[in-house]
Amino acid sequence: MYEFVGKLMGLAMRSGNLLELDLPSxxxxxxxxxxxxxxxxxGIDLICFKILERLSAFDKPGEHxxxxxxxxxxFTCVRSDQKLVRLVKDGHRKKVTWENRKLYMxxxxxxxxxxxRTQCAAIRRGLASVVxxxxxxxxxxxxxxxx
Length: 147
What we know:
This protein is mostly helical. The chain has helices at 2-15, 25-31, 38-41, 46-57, 101-114, 117-128, 133-136, 141-146; strands spanning 76-78, 84-86.
């Protein structure tokens, strides 16, 4: 199905017809071989973004372990398809602490930014069957969205 979406996108590009797809940047960026960032996470999960933002705030000068209240966070996350994913073995039993918060942040961000990689690869294959793949890198993700 995703390959078909890519083909539709390619046909729209070739014919100059606008195909209005309201997709987040976390989908568009991999199509032009650009890595999504934490900022792109806002487009799919604002709560997850806020959690990462708050945990990142503890890296600023003047912040230390005594300011870090024990959270109820575990080494798990809920993906867009509502599937619970364990970020580490037995992640549902491992609490996020001051000492392991950076590992949690790294794993959470990696999981959320890469959860659509299979679908993006299929869209890209479909798109490449209509438009040469070498053309993709000439666009930014924003330009591809309106092309």
